[in-house]
TrEMBL record:
Keywords: Hydrolase. InterPro entries: AB_hydrolase_1, AB_hydrolase_fold, FAR_NAD-bd, NAD(P)-bd_dom_sf, NAD(P)-dependent_oxidoreduct. It comes from Paenibacillus germinis. It holds the Pfam family NAD_binding_4. Residues 392-616 form the AB hydrolase-1 domain. This is Alpha/beta fold hydrolase. Signal peptide: none annotated. Gene3D superfamilies: alpha/beta hydrolase (3.40.50.1820), NAD(P)-binding Rossmann-like Domain (3.40.50.720). Residues 6-244 form the Thioester reductase (TE) domain.
């Protein structure tokens, strides 16, 4: 059994690496700043789901935190923790912030000083028992190689023009290479390119890198792209990088080697093509031309550039199409272990949407839920205590998202729950279908079909309408159907123009949003409106993708054909409806009054304002 000491275990690369290492027979000591942060990571990885069988199966009892800090002497470890770390066979150094704007002193502490501390640790292990392997995660732009680090002076001189972040990171690469040679332990230097989300669902917690490009495009600052078709941005999936690092940790006789993790140029879009794809997903105009990266760097470094807010250091990741990187060593390892390494182009819309979501929601919280994907929809999912109960699928309405229904989902701890973001909302990419409502319906149907067993379908407002449509198409996949204040008749005619809707949504502020919510009978009074809901909606509407989708959806809801339901008789027999009687803007159509209907003295958004009461009523309806 290999004992691994890992730094950066709570970071973007580190958490994914922990997930991969948990599948192997290792003991792992993880450097973390606090026990609280360690508990957050365990929740993020689904290790605190309450499923003791799963926790045992992944072997997480073999993972233990050591409390410390990269920037402190001896990492600030206690004597007990240091004694434990000194028994490690493998060191994985993935620590250090992803902040290209940090200053000189901080960069020196977290990169160069940390490298010295790790070499001191490695020296003690090598002397006492022999260090099996040191794995250092750096970055593909480091100028040091296996061939040139013996004569570093010219390269060090050239680094004076680099930012403190890049310079100290690269000097740490050099220092660890030198130390490995002096101490004679095997060193693997791993150079990931710009890391993007999971290859299955696109989840990208690290908003630097590609996120800078996504944010600039959302702000309509990418009409002129850096480099155009003559440059590209090398990308690599985070889970593929973690699998590679985990494979290195399994090597019984490792050799010192440098590995570049990049998607090959022939399989990658140019910057022009990449930004055009981002613009499509964000629903803004595509770029019109290109500018030299050197000229743009000067502009971004000027007072004008500082007002724009795009760091000139972000251009360091862009590569000339003629620049090549040695990929043979990494490809040999990938073949040896059967590892995936090609960027999944079909998942890029999800990566872009996830980054867009994270950039407008500064601190998205969904503790205890795992990010996933059902059909074309991004999801938040949680396993319940009763595996025999059908999973509950929650579908939100307009001016909402999966996160808004989390308080309602929390009322069903015994059930496995899945909350979807509809296309163009939350974390889901837009469907780009010609018919807005039809695209939403078909996306939901595909999500329902992804379940192995029938689901209990719960839809609120627009989500209720879509759930009714979905039931008509896949009744065999739906165990129970519950409609919460479903939008079953046309919206007010003032929403007919998508363009006017979008302009109005752009101008919304907290006070005007509350006023509109009360005017539309979404809530009964100001005290009824959860503050977190207002914060969520205003953040969502900062995204041009969500704003345009919301505007077009509201417009589509003014058309009668959106409400033409198939098999209405079957729907009325099977559905239960919860209806808020304080909703003055909407009425339950007469033809639906024969359905099992429970009235509640609340307004349109009662699942958001009264989640506990809503859950009680749903249970009474056999949920």
């Amino acid at each position: 059994m290999t004992h691994i000491f890992i730094t950066g275990g709570t970071g973007f690369i580190g958490t994914q690496t922990l997930e991969q290492l948990s599948r192997e027979d290792h003991t792992v000591s993880v450097l973390v700043r606090s026990k609280a942060r360690w508990e957050q990571i365990r929740k993020q990885l689904g290790w605190l789901s309450g499923d003791s069988q799963r926790e045992t199966s992944v072997g997480i009892e073999r993972f233990s935190p050591v409390i410390g800090d990269l920037s402190l002497p001896g990492f600030g470890l206690s004597k007990t923790d240091m004694a434990s770390v000194l028994t490690a066979d493998v060191i994985i150094h993935a620590g250090g912030p992803m902040d290209i704007r940090i200053g000189e002193s901080e960069a020196r502490a977290v990169f160069l000083q940390a490298a010295e501390e790790l070499l001191n640790l490695a020296s003690q292990i090598q002397t006492s028992k022999g260090l099996q392997h040191f794995i250092h995660i750096v970055g593909f732009k480091s100028p040091f190689t296996d061939d040139n680090f013996h004569n570093p002076a010219p390269i060090i001189a050239s680094l004076e023009q680099e930012s403190p972040y890049e310079r100290m990171k690269f000097l740490a690469d050099l220092r660890i290479r030198q130390g490995a040679m002096q101490l004679s332990f095997p060193l693997s230097v791993v150079h990931p390119s710009v890391l993007i989300g999971n290859s299955e669902h696109g989840d990208t917690p690290q908003t630097g890198g590609l996120g800078i490009l996504v944010q600039a495009t959302a702000r309509r600052l990418m009409s002129i792209t850096p480099g155009g078709n003559s440059h590209w941005l090398p990308l690599f999936h985070i889970n593929h990088a973690a699998e590679f690092i985990s494979a290195l940790a399994k090597e019984s006789n490792p050799v010192s080697q440098t590995y570049y993790l990049l998607n090959e140029k022939k399989q990658s879009p140019s910057i022009m093509e990449l930004v055009s794809g981002i613009a499509k997903e964000l629903r803004v105009s595509k770029p019109l031309g290109a500018i030299s990266p050197k000229l743009l760097s000067k502009v971004l470094g000027s007072p004008l550039g500082q007002k724009i807010g795009i760091p000139k250091e972000s251009l360091d990741f862009i590569v000339d199409v003629n620049q090549a990187y040695p990929l043979t060593a990494a490809q040999d390892m990938q073949r040896k272990y059967g590892l995936e390494h090609v960027v999944n182009s079909s998942i890029m819309p999800y990566t872009i949407s996830d980054l867009d979501f994270r950039l407008v929601h500064s601190h998205p919280q969904a503790d205890g839920y795992i990010r996933g994907k059902r059909g074309p929809l991004a999801t938040l999912e949680r396993v319940g205590s009763d595996k025999g109960k059908p999973p509950i699928l929650f579908v939100h309405g307009t001016l909402s998202g999966a996160d808004c229904l989390l308080p309602l989902a929390e009322q069903f701890p015994e059930s496995s729950v899945c909350l979807v973001d509809l296309p163009g909302f939350g974390r889901s990419p837009y469907h780009h279908a010609a018919d807005v409502i039809e695209g939403h319906i078909e996306s939901l149907v595909q999500a329902i079909r992804s379940f192995e067993t029938p689901v209990t379908l719960v839809g609120h407002s627009l989500g209720g309408l879509l759930a009714a449509h979905a039931y008509a198409r896949v009744p065999e996949q739906i165990h129970r159907l519950h409609l919460l204040q479903p939008a079953l008749h046309s919206a007010a005619r003032r929403f007919r123009s998508a363009r006017i809707n979008e302009a109005a949504l752009r101008m919304l502020r907290a006070a005007s949003l509350r006023k509109q919510l009360l005017a539309q009978s979404c809530f009964t009074d100001i005290s009824d409106i959860p503050p977190a809901y207002v914060t969520y909606v205003l953040a969502e509407l900062q995204s041009p993708r969500v704003r345009k989708t919301t505007a077009e959806t509201l417009s589509a809801l003014t058309r009668a054909e959106s409400f033409s339901l198939q098999q209405p008789d079957a729907l009325l027999r099977e559905a239960s409806i919860l209806w808020g009687t304080q909703d003055r803007a909407c009425q339950l159509p007469e033809r639906f009054r024969s359905a099992r209907t429970v009235e509640i003295a609340a307004a349109h958004h009662f699942p958001i304002s009264h989640p506990t009461l809503t859950a009680q009523l749903l249970r009474q309806q056999d949920l």
